[in-house]
TrEMBL record:
Domain of life, per lineage: Eukaryota
Protein name: Nose resistant-to-fluoxetine protein N-terminal domain-containing protein
SMART domains recorded: NRF (SM00703)
Pfam families in alphabetical order: Acyl_transf_3, NRF
Length: 355
């Protein structure tokens, strides 16, 4: 009896109308139903009456979005339970969970917003607080459903006709747990070798200092201790004040990006974030774009300063050497950052969506 009551509550409180969903999915079932229709038929059969020894169908409804509380504080939607959905496997292993989500508002509310108007609206100006603009830019009311993995994104979009101008993005457990690519493995090996070199070089450096022995300079190339001292020491010819400006600028940029990333995700108190961004304190956030300009200014200043110093010594300027030096200084760090970002937690994840 408790399971039946729970089932009624889930059907009644879900933001997705499951009755309409099943009608839409099964309306064209003929002699040869599609794999998705077969799975939906089985899901319906396992729900009514519910099978107590295999609750996979009930878990799919349980892990889907529900009507959210706190709408007046900006909690526009519930994203369901991502992990519960992906962990769903029927007793015979033939059906697995597929988590699908999208965000937006009904097209009737967004037709009045033109692309030209949207281009003039930016997050840092605090104009993204308008819910209609949120919907046009991928935010708005989020909705998530959990369905059998046999259903494609195209079939799910036909079954659930909400926010029709946007498409569901779907993912399964297999998409997350895909093996590392060859490039990722090669990069991890290279990074590991560099880490071992740093450990060996630093250990050798500290050992030589401990026994007061003169080290071989080549073996100190990867020493964290020696290189760290060189990086942190200040020379009389350097513009040391620039380092302080860089620190403040970096803190400013990171703070602004952190707030921006939070606002691009579903929030339970979105209106509080909007109030903050439009307040005097929030000026630090939406004026953060100017922090990037300080890096352009400092880069040009330091480049000119070092070039003028070199010209003063040699009275020669080789443009090929100049560009090669700049490339070698920037490319390696940039490539390492891109590779680390790729090999991180998002590596190998494939999200199924319509083109």
């Amino acid at each position: 009896m408790k399971v039946v009551i729970l089932l009624v509550i889930l059907f009644g409180s879900g933001s997705c109308n499951w009755e309409d969903l099943f009608k839409e999915a099964l309306k064209d079932v003929g002699t040869f139903p599609s794999p998705c229709q077969k799975a939906m038929l089985r899901m319906l059969g396992d729900l009514i009456p519910p099978k107590l020894d295999d609750l996979w169908a009930l878990k799919m409804i349980d892990s889907a979005s529900k009507f959210p509380s706190g709408l007046l504080t900006g909690n526009f939607g519930n994203m369901g339970n991502f992990k519960e959905c992906l962990d769903i496997v029927s007793k015979d292993g033939s059906i697995k969970g597929k988590y699908c989500s999208k965000s937006g508002l009904p097209s009737s509310l967004t037709d009045g917003i033109t692309d030209k108007t949207l281009n003039k609206i930016t997050l840092f100006q605090g104009k993204m607080s308008q819910p209609i603009v949120q919907a046009k830019t991928g935010l708005g009311f989020p909705i998530a459903v959990c369905l059998p993995h046999q259903c494609s994104t195209e079939e799910i979009n036909k079954m659930i006709k909400i926010f029709e101008w946007s498409s569901f993005q779907c993912i399964t457990k297999e998409d997350i747990e895909r093996p590392l690519s060859t490039g990722a493995i090669i990069f991890i090996v290279i990074i590991s070798l560099i880490g071992l070199l740093m450990l060996a070089s630093t250990s050798y450096d500290l050992y030589c200092r401990h026994i007061e022995k003169k080290p071989i300079p080549l073996l100190l190339a990867y020493s964290v201790y020696t290189n760290g001292k060189k990086i942190l020491e200040t020379k009389p010819s350097e513009l040391s004040c620039v380092n302080g400006i860089k620190v403040f600028s970096m803190i400013w940029v990171v703070y602004g990006h952190t707030f921006c990333a939070l606002c691009m995700s579903p929030l339970v108190n979105f209106f509080d974030a909007v109030s903050y961004i439009n307040s005097l304190k929030g000026m630090v956030v939406h004026a953060g774009v100017f922090a990037v300009d300080t890096f352009f200014c400092l880069s040009g200043l330091l480049l000119t300063y070092t070039t003028m110093k070199a010209l003063h010594k040699t009275n020669k300027f080789n443009i090929l050497t100049f560009y090669l030096h700049r490339y070698m200084r920037l490319a390696a760090a940039g490539q390492a950052y891109v590779a680390l970002n790729r090999v991180g937690s998002l590596d190998g994840i494939r999200i199924e969506e319509l083109d």
